Amino acid sequence: MKNMIVIFGSFIIAVAYNFFLVPYSILSSGISGVAILLGLITPFNTGIINFILNLPLLILSYYKLGKKITLNTILSVVSLSLFLYILPVIPLTDNILLSTIFGGVITGVGVGLILKYSGTSGGLDIVAIIVSRTSNFSVGILLTAMNGIIVLISGTAFNWNIALYTLLSIYLTGRMIDKIHTSHMKVTMQIVTTKGDAIRNELLQTIYRGITVTEGYGGYTLEKKQIMMMVMTRYETVQVKEIVRKHDPNAFINIFETVEVDGTFAKN
């Protein structure tokens, strides 16, 4: 199932490139943007160039992100390169602004889906994920920042109008990625329960997160309760809630966004 989503995400990216961005010489983010540029100024196909440029970064992914993500990334890179090679370069609209907007948004949807299901689309995605695990910056923000060089290349190679359209496309891609790929977002969960020991034991066995437990009591019933606090990624909240409800269907759960964590927090 995950492999199919990675392939589908790669197809979406290829559609955005060949039907919206490439016809107007608008570059995308990262290595794919460089591949589009080289495909425009050389006789080589964009798909082939994209595959070659990604090879050294796949090696970096294997050592820094692990085997699982790297295998999904290889699947994504091969699929994207193949789709770019197969799909014709045809503009779906004669309006460059519409192409920029839809191309950027659709690219972000494709990349976001791939990232969400334990992969990357290759290129600077790999670098962005590595950096995001050691900082408080999201993948989308990092990709947008790192792609400033793509805008400069676009402006130098073509013209600054195209460069500004490229900047808009990259920005929209980054924003859409952050809407879909939310594993970098941290939340704090407070659990008020009378089954604290059972919940705590299972959480410690299944969730790699620290738990702070304090004693309290109900303001109305004066019943003794345990108050548990955990900081986790948004993805982990579903699993934690399932564990809590299994032991205490009446537990009170409060979840709120965490702006920043200063201290030990596993990001893998």
Task: Summarize the SSE layout with pairings.
Elements: H1 2-21, H2 30-41, H3 46-64, H4 67-86, H5 96-116, H6 124-132, H7 139-146, H8 148-157, H9 160-180, E1 186-193, H10 196-206, E2 212-217, E3 224-233, H11 236-247, E4 252-257
Antiparallel strand pairs: 1-3, 1-4, 2-3
Explain how this protein is built.
The protein has 268 residues and is of the alpha+beta class. The chain has two domains: 179 residues, no CATH class; 72 residues, 2-Layer Sandwich (Alpha-Beta Plaits), CATH 3.30.70.120. Helix content is 61%, strand content 11%. The protein has a four-stranded antiparallel β-sheet, with helices on one face. Strand 2 and strand 3 form a beta hairpin. 39% of the residues are buried.
Any key phrases for this structure?
single chain, 268 residues, alpha+beta, Alpha-Beta Plaits, four-stranded antiparallel sheet, 11 helices, 61% helix, 11% strand, elongated
Uncertain segments:
none
Number of domains: 2
Placed side by side, the strands forming the largest sheet appear as 2-3-1-4
What structural category characterises the helix and strand content?
A: alpha+beta
How far the N terminus sits from the C terminus, by CA atoms, comes to 22 Å
Strand residue content: 5-15%
Write down how many β-strands occur, each being a DSSP E stretch of 2 or more residues.
4
The biggest beta sheet is recorded as:
4 strands, antiparallel
Order of helices and strands: HHHHHHHHHEHEEHE
Overall 3D geometry?
Answer: elongated
Question: Helix count?
Answer: 11
Helix content: 55-70%
What is the radius of gyration computed over CA atoms, rounded to a whole number of angstroms?
22 Å
Mean pLDDT: 80
